[in-house]
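Weekly modeling sync, notes
Attendees: S.R. (lead), two postdocs, one rotation student

Agenda item 3: backlog of single-chain predictions. S.R. asked that every request posted to the team notebook include the full sequence so nobody has to chase files. The rotation student volunteered to paste the first one in as an example of the format we agreed on. Action items at the bottom.

Example entry:
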Amino acid sequence: MFYKMTYVNFILLLLGISIIGVRSEKGCVALDTVSFDKILSKFKAVLVKFDTVFPYGSKQEAYEAVCSASRVITELLVTEVSVKDYGDKENLDLAEKFGVKKNDYPVVKLFINGKEAYTFRPQKDEDWDEKNLKNFIRAKSGVYIGLDGCYEDFDNLALNFTVSTTKEERQKYLNKAQEILRSTNSLHKQKAGEVYVKYMKKFMEIGDKFINQEEKRIKTITEEAKIHITKRREFDHKINILNSFKIRDEL
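Predicted structure, as returned to the notebook:
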């Protein structure tokens, strides 16, 4: 975490951009018309949210969660552009440059190697969440940003496992997952690894329908029962790990 913020601050200092713009508690950087073009080319991927000056609500909370998760990822910079349509109309010209309109706020765009590439467009309003934002970043940029409880090496194995077409190929990825599980010294990663391995085995036993069945089972438990917050977090992590086995639709 310290390394990422130090790296960001260093880049901003080199560019003559005030560090005051860095919202270190969230991992986000506030951009304006002057700093925007300077910063884009310095990172492989830059996520930009165009929004009102004082955003709030579930979408803002989801974006802040992505900001926080990005702090340890040096290839990715998560930023915000606050747009005023009154007074000095700060950053309004920047929003207009990219075709962003007030009625569409918040608008999230992903820039790859300094060039605008993609706009986050979930099909349903309820899909505007942390999970889909992270999947969007991963699918479009190739930069890994994991969901809570997930790990990059296990996630890569899970996706390769899913797209494999033979039992032999899937067994190969299961074996690799078991090797990583045996070699890890982290208790949290070990617990997560056990879930990945368990799901791979169930997947091979039951077939592709296992993912949806398990997801429905967990959601039923969490919706109908009073569960301690710690246990609920475990179930949330399991849902996130299940998501790693899905072939993601690009948003």
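Discussion: group reviewed the output briefly. The radius of gyration is 20 Å.
Action items: rotation student to repeat for the remaining queue; S.R. to check formatting next week.
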